[in-house]
Design goal:
Two copies of one chain form a homodimer. By secondary structure, chain A is α/β, with parallel strands linked by helices. Chain A contains six helices and nine strands; from the N terminus they run βαβαβαβαβαβαβββ. In chain A, the strands form two sheets. The first copy, chain A, has a six-stranded parallel beta sheet, sandwiched between helices. A three-stranded antiparallel beta sheet of chain A has the order 7-8-9, with no helix packed on it. At the A-B interface, helix 1, strand 4, strand 6 and helix 6 of A face helix 1, strand 4, strand 6 and helix 6 of B.
């Protein structure tokens, strides 16, 4: 993947219902793009259910987790005590283009903080880096995605997820989804363990 | 910015209320990351209001627009007739890492299609490229952001927005926001046209 050993995401603030969809996106981006865990202070059951479904279908149940926490400051403190750095993504921060190299060189363990909307002022001072993914308002999901893409240099997309039931075979046209045959061990790497689902492969279009 | 002359975003599908927040994110990402227009078939008034507010405060009212359309196929057809290419972002597509160079070389005008959830099957065949920003489910906002970041190679963050009332001065700690002095012409480039707002600069933390 890269020399990075561990990336975690800490999402501060979540307004129930209003933020459910964006929170789901933040969770799935964290999972799909190489982080190991997303810490959240509050979360709707629906979001946990969505993640469980995705993990069961597309793999990685033991590689990515959503962890509910009481106290984000404690998570941050422990992360730092264990030699990790904390990067807070904010439109007010220093430009990503200028800082990404320094961040990559400074630690193999990165805790990325994103806020649902405004974050407590302390975050700006507890973080090792306040980084702007552009200085215009947009989306914490977009900011997280670009940050992870820059950190992993695109290699996050080469990751395989273990124990998946379905697997996408990249395709220039349409959808090509293979289904894992149940009689093969889940950790086999042979491509013969997959077969095309019997249903029309384009049914979901 | 780059040799690209024009990037537009076409968002297909929007389920009212449920998708309002993610749609707002898609609109703001399109604006902040170098595209000129987002075409949408349906949109809540709140989203237009949010964009208006952002344009008024942070600039770019004449540089980015949200356009409501009746018929996405027509938009796509006209785009192609004018020599542009169409890139559909989908987890089923060909890997971005393998295709980005070819896309950048093939046209200076790119229409990027993202779907709120499932898109009509025809999109896969009308697009010039079906591109996967990873083959795992995550977020069309994240996919769009990474695609634009790859296309513009980070230079989208150097863009200035005209006629802004507020401007962020990137900062390693806290928030540094300057307010445009009303007695300076809006197209002046001198930094002296800005002053720090009189209110406590960290009030919004």
């Amino acid at each position: 993947m890269s020399k990075l050993s561990s990336v975690a995401v800490l999402r501060i603030g979540h307004r129930l219902v209003r933020d459910d969809r964006t929170t789901t996106h933040a969770v799935l981006v964290s999972r799909a793009m190489g982080s190991e865990v997303i810490y959240m202070t509050e979360v709707d059951d629906e979001i946990k259910k969505t993640l469980d479904k995705v993990n069961k279908r597309w793999g990685g149940e033991n590689e990515f987790r959503l962890e509910i926490i009481d106290n984000w400051k404690r998570v941050l403190k422990i992360w730092k005590e264990n030699g990790g750095i904390v990067v807070h993504l904010t439109m007010y921060g220093a430009p990503i283009n200028q800082k990404i190299k320094e961040i990559k060189e400074s630690s193999q363990r990165i805790l990325v903080i994103i806020g649902a909307e405004k974050v407590p002022k302390e975050v700006y001072f507890l973080a090792d880096y306040n980084i702007a993914i552009g200085s215009q308002p947009h989306s914490e999901i977009a900011a997280l995605a670009i940050f992870l893409d820059r950190i992993f240099e695109g290699n996050q997309f080469n990751k395989s997820f273990l124990d998946e039931k379905m697997k996408i075979i990249p395709s220039e046209r349409g959808k090509n989804v293979m289904q894992r045959n149940q009689d093969y061990p889940s950790n086999s790497n042979s491509s013969s363990i997959y077969s095309r689902p019997k249903r029309n492969q384009n049914k979901d279009s």
